[in-house]
Every structure is written in C-alpha cells, then in structure tokens.
C-alpha cells in the first residue's frame, strides 16, 4: 500500500503508460484521418496485426527501421481492400471492416505457422536501444517517466504535431474534414470525395500498420497469434473521447496506456486482489470513455455512410 | 446500386421499407453467384497454398475428407455448424433490428459459466430437471452479459459494436479468474473446471462421433427464428431495423426493441456456451468460445439474416472449420487457412450481397453512432 505514496511508483506507471500507448498513438491518429473523412475502419485490428507480422519478418534479416516501414506498407495493402470494396464498390463499411479483421488474424496466423517449425526457435528481434533525452529525464520527481523509451515512442510523440499540422493547416486536411462533414457540399465545391476518402483510409492503414510494427519491434519482439489483442478496437474507442481531434487521439491513447500500466503495476501493490480484476481496469476505463463520448463527443456526420457521386 | 443509394439518402417517412424486404435475387442467381464467391475464396486460398509450397489439391482433398469423408467427419461438421447457426440466428435478430452485436464471444463464455454453475447447484437433481434448468442458466448468463451494453445503447446511444467487444474482454478475464481459482480442481495444472456433472450432460447421438444432442438445439432455434420473423413483434423489429423514424412514428418503442433484440442475441449465445460445455467438451476451458462468436456474426451476415441463409452459411463454415482442423493434422497445413477462406467469402459476399446486406444494415448505418450526432 505504501508504494502508492512513492514517486517511483507513479513515474514507473507513467513510463509504462507511454510505452504501452505508443502503438495506439500511431493507430488512433491514422484512424482519426479516416473517420474525419467519414470512413470507419473496423478492420484496424487487421491492419495492425498484419503490420506487426510484416515488421518482424522484414526486421529480422535486415534492420528495425526497414521492418517498421514494411509494417506500414502491409497495413496500407490491407486498407487498399477497404478502399476497393467499401469506397469504390459501396459495400457496407462494418461488414468489410469486420471481414478484414478476420482476414488479418487468419493470414498472420497462417504465415506464422507455415514459417515456424514446431519446437524450433521463434523468429525474434531484440528490443531497440533506449534513448534518453537529457533535459526531460532531469525533471525532478517525474524524470523517470521519460526514461528508457525507444525511438518508436519518441517518433510517435514527434509525429503528433506533424499530423495535427496536416489535419488542420493544409488543404488536404480541410478536404478530409469536408468530405466527412458534408460530402455533397464538398463535391459541389469540386472536391473529389472518393479520392480524399481513399487517401484518408490508406493513411489509416499505413499508420495502423506502423502501430502494429511499433508494438512488435518496440515492445513484444516476437510474434504470437492474436498478438495485437484488440488494440485496433481500443484505438477506435480512444478516438471518440478525443472528439476526433489529433491531439485528443494521442492523449486518449496515452490515457488507455496509462491505465493498462496502472493495472499491471497495481499487481505488486494489491497482491490479494485477483490479477484479472486489475487487468480489467483499462477496459473498464475504455467503457467509461465510450459512454462519455456518446454524450458529448461530436461525431463527423458522414461517418460510416458510403457516398456515391452523382456524376 | 443506384436505388440503394437513393434509398439510404431519402430514408424518410415515405420510404416503403419492409414491403420490399423480400426481393432477394432468384434462387438460381443467388446460388450461382454464391458459388462464384466461394470458388473465388477457395481459389485465393489455393494461391496462398502454392506460394507457401503446398499442393492445393492435396490440401483441399484433406479439407474435404475432414468435413465429409467419414462418419466422424460429418458428425464433426454438424457439431461445429450448430453453435454457428445458433449464434447466427441470435445475432440475426439483432441485425434485423439494426444492431451489430459483435460480442457474442463473451456471451458464449458467460453462458458456459452460467451452465456450469447451475449444473453444480443441481448435482443431485434428476436429469429431466437438471438439463432444462442448466440450459436456462446458460441463456440467462448470456443475456446478463449483454444487458449493460443493451441499456447503454438504448438510453445513451453508446455504440454496441465496441461496448459488446469490451464485455468480451471482461468475460475472458472472468473465466480466467474462475478457472484459476474457485472453479479449478485441486488436481488441475492448466486452468479448467471440474468435469461437467453427469446428470446435466447432453448425450451423444451418434456413437463414434462428437454429434451430441445439443446439435438439435440449432434446429429448435431455427424454428423459433422462423416463428419470430413471422410474428407481429418480429415484423415490428424488422421495421425498426429498416427505418427507425418510421417505426417510432408508428408507436413502436425503439428503446425496447434495442434492449430486447440484444437480449435475445445474448440468450442464444448463452445457449451455445451451454451446449459446448454440457454436450461437446464436458468441461469449461478458457478458450471455450473459440471463435464461435465472431464467425456466428459472419454467418448471420452471409445468410442475409434469413432462416434458410443462416443454416446454409453455418453448415458451410462448420465444414470449413472441421475440414481445416483435419487438414492441419493430416497434412500439417495450418487450420488458419479456413479462417482466411471464411473471411474472403464474407468479403466476396459484401459486394455480391451489397444491396441485401446494405438493406439489412440500413438501420445500423442510420443509427450508427460513436458520439453525439449533429443533424445538419
């Protein structure tokens, strides 16, 4: 119990939260683009797990950054199926997304088992070196929170303002919001609705794949079936709390990661409480977020609705 | 395609809605295009097999033999199709009312726990009393597991896709806790329950197979579904699913439709937990739901949420899954190949059936919400 009053407990939880949030930051920012444009990617889980596997299989013989990129490309290819079926052929977004999640899980399970000998050594990468940023880790009390993170985490953090800039300060970002708010009006203004939606979906696929890759190369190091453990769906939930803002999505990802780390760290404090109850904490928080979001987060009106150009 | 788009664009009170709900394509068209989608999925699977250095002919032969090649294989196909059909019918009720319950997985787990707890309570009762009460126990736990998402959806517009998914996480954690602690037999090393009490078990129907009496629950549920769809209530729920505004203006209580249809889907998933524990596995394991919840929803989509469609889709998927596992043990080819083929069939149908699935999910999309909806 007394551990709860020590700064190290909380700084360790903050650090763990940031680490666990890293994959979610990539995935939720990408999906924010897609949802702002009106496309719901229920297949995000599929993009992430395919990205995770691809990153491992490329990073193992080569280097981490190349694997990271390969993860993004793999996610993008999955999102391409979404673009073709849902955006170009007007198939239901929920059905296709659900199918893509199953496809991603099946495909990665198949490839993993075909390439892994029974009783053999699993393909594995060693986790990347920790990079400490001098000024940040010198902050009193909380300095430890910024200690021991890999470049995947630092890149995710650096990525947030860049994504915000693209989303809020460029014509593309404006078009993305326009086609999600009112596709008819956007088309009347000469915006190619289907093209913008396709691009936003591909961004979601690429970043979802990067998220899976960050999970694999920066956190887990080896593949197992279902390794992403529904993080794709969690990313869908944290976006809501953020009311579809970029900063908010990153913050929401961090909040979920924080509670996940809290659940893990509390296991050492409350040894009598069942571990399963503490592990349920982040999901209970996610349920609260989902419920609160339904009350106050303003959803892009075109979200989930397919659009067929009149011309 | 165009009529669908204009359909969803207007969606007002003038929309005839359910009147045109039965204009499915003719049987021959439906059959030939369905077969085409399946053939394409199998073709893509064959390509994947070739790339990974396997002979597709050998693989598919093993898959077919594992699904239909022997008495055991056929029994296995039915034992796998039944839970898919039951979950499929339950989620079809919700789907017709415009709700996508993706969390049947968790409700299956809850149902298995409920059935086991009831059976442990009734260990001394005669089977005539124990079996039906244990079934009710499973169904009630399945319902309980969807109650909160249902209420949240009805009264606070909380998206049911994501909330039921979270409840699947809770169910997985709960069963893990129970099987590691209070329900774990002293002798067990891995998390599992005691054997299901004998008096509450469902017997084998065909010796030498795993075709157990619980498979017939699928038949009962199928008849119940047919009755439901033709009843006044079922018609009202369909109407709500196709056009919520129209239904509300006709005095159909939307909140009750949402809660009840989700509870029905939860009850059927709970029944599946019961038959898996009492009929097939005779224990509760952490992975008792395997992927039944997810593929049950796929079956509901593929079958267009109709009585005939769901049973055909369930048999097809049951065959693919039992065949896939047999192929894995005979040829060493991962059973995940079946998952891939099933996913591809769904994706193929999403275009093939787009008008049907779109109409089916029109209420889903009309009411789809992740946050506050702002009407323009």
Protein described:
- The complex is a heterodimer of chains A (311) and B (376).
- Chain A is 70% helix and 0% strand.
- Chain A has 311 residues and is mainly alpha-helical.
- In chain A, helix 1 runs antiparallel to helix 9, helix 1 runs antiparallel to helix 11 and helix 2 packs parallel to helix 4.
- Chain A has 13 helices and no strands.
- Chain A is globular.
- Chain A has one domain: ABC transporter involved in vitamin B12 uptake, BtuC (Orthogonal Bundle).
- Chain B has 376 residues and is mainly alpha-helical.
- Chain B has one domain: ABC transporter involved in vitamin B12 uptake, BtuC, CATH 1.10.3470.
- In chain B, helix 5 crosses helix 11, helix 6 packs across helix 7 and helix 13 runs antiparallel to helix 14.
- Chain B is globular, with a radius of gyration of 21 Å.
- At the A-B interface, helix 4, helix 10, helix 12 and helix 13 of A face helix 1, helix 7, helix 12, helix 14 and helix 15 of B.
The structural class of chain B is mainly alpha
The helical percent of chain B reads over 70%
What is the fold-level CATH name, i.e. the topology of chain B? ABC transporter involved in vitamin B12 uptake, BtuC
Task: Using the 3D structure, state the CATH architecture of chain B.
Answer: Orthogonal Bundle
> What is the top-level CATH class of chain A?
Mainly Alpha
**CA-atom Rg of chain A in angstroms:** 20 Å
What would a concise description of this structure say?
Chain A is mostly helical and 311 residues long. Chain A contains 13 helices and no strands. Chain B is built from 16 helices and no strands.
What is the element layout, followed by pairings?
The complex is a heterodimer of chains A (311) and B (376).
Chain A: H1 7-36, H2 44-59, H3 64-88, H4 93-115, H5 134-137, H6 151-169, H7 171-181, H8 183-188, H9 193-220, H10 231-241, H11 246-269, H12 275-279, H13 281-296
Helix pairs in contact in A: 1-6, 1-7, 1-9, 1-10, 1-11, 2-3, 2-4, 2-9, 2-10, 3-4, 3-9, 6-7, 7-9, 10-11, 10-13, 11-13
Chain B: H1 2-10, H2 27-51, H3 56-68, H4 71-96, H5 104-121, H6 127-156, H7 160-180, H8 215-230, H9 232-242, H10 244-249, H11 254-281, H12 292-302, H13 307-331, H14 336-352, H15 354-360, H16 362-367
